[in-house]
Amino acid sequence: MSKSIFVFLLFLACNSFSQEVPNHTWKIIVKDSLTADQNLVLVSQTLLANDFAIENTDPGSHKIKSAIKQLENSSSTYFFEFTALAGAIEVTGEWNTNTTIYFQGVKSKSTFKPIENRGGRSGEVFIKMNDFALKMSGSYFYVF
Question: What is the value of pTM for the model shown?
C-alpha cells in the first residue's frame, strides 16, 4: 500500500513541474502580481527586447498588438496580441500562410487565423507564442 502511495506522489510531483501544453490551446495566461499598468509596460519592454515592433497600444483597454513578423523559412506571417490585467497577461495571436490559390479563374487569398497548438504551421507559430510568453515571469495557464 505504501509503495503505491509513494508512486502516486512521485507521479504527482513530476506532473507539477512539467506542464505539457494541451492540443488546441489558443490562449496563454501569465499570472503574476503586477498591476495592469505594470503589465502593459512589461509586455512593451519584452516585445522590444526580443526584436518585435509594436503595431498598436491602447492604454485605456490595456491592449498591445505586435507588428507582423515572418516565420523563418516560410512565407507565413504572425502577430501577437496582449491584454494586460491586474495580476495577469493574456497572450493570443493570429497567423497567415500568405498563399494565393487560383481555381477556375477565381483568386482566393489566405486570411489571418487564430494561433492554435494543433500541429503544422499553426503549431510552429504557437511555439513562437509560447516561447515569448515564457519570457515573462509568472505562472502559466493554457486555454483550449
Answer: 0.80
